[in-house]
Write a structure and sequence with these properties.
Shape: globular
Low-confidence stretches: none
Helix content: 10-25%
CATH class of the domain at 45-148: Mainly Beta
Strand order of the largest sheet: 5-4-3-7-6
Distance between the termini: 15 Å
Radius of gyration: 18 Å
Structural class: alpha+beta
Largest sheet: 5 strands, antiparallel
Order of helices and strands: HEEEEEHEEEEEH
Length: 150
């Protein structure tokens, strides 16, 4: 990746970023997503509505978010919080680059990743701290490799 600065005739607080690539890949999408979230405030807390209350989860404590139909499970360092919603809505709130979607059903915090192992019948399994595991879709393996610098 090449990065360069170029002076332009813009307002004092204006910045224009252009991303050039031969094709629009997952890597380009992640870069664009990161740039879009750059201006926004970094989310350090996520409000989660449970059946009886609203809970605030610190993103640093969040190990994984998993969805089963429309039931969300937020795995933290000390509990599992159940809620209702869509994974894509959670993904937009988790703007930090260490949160990576690994399947249609799960987003993991890469800070808690211990290993990626072969599972049954050719699947991959992400093993996270605190004994949490989830299936990794082959479609997302390249994003994980890129994050790890492999």
């Amino acid at each position: 990746m090449k990065v360069k600065f170029q002076k332009a005739d813009l307002g004092p607080d204006e910045i224009t970023v252009v991303v050039e690539s031969a094709t629009k890949t997952a890597r380009v999408d992640r870069l664009l997503s990161y740039l879009k979230s750059f201006e926004g405030q970094s989310t350090t807390n996520i409000p989660v509505k449970t059946p009886d209350r609203f809970m605030i989860i610190k993103t640093g404590d969040l190990v994984m978010v998993e969805v089963n139909q429309n039931e969300l499970s937020f795995y933290t360092s000390d509990q599992v919080v159940k809620s209702v919603g869509k994974l894509k809505d959670v993904r937009t709130r988790l703007s930090a680059p260490n949160f990576i979607q690994v399947s249609r059903f799960a987003i993991i915090n890469m800070d808690y990743l211990q290993a990626i192992e072969n599972g049954f019948s050719g699947t991959l399994v992400a093993k996270l701290e605190l004994g949490v595991r989830t299936t990794v879709s082959r479609r997302y393996v390249s994003v994980i490799k890129q994050y790890l610098g492999l």
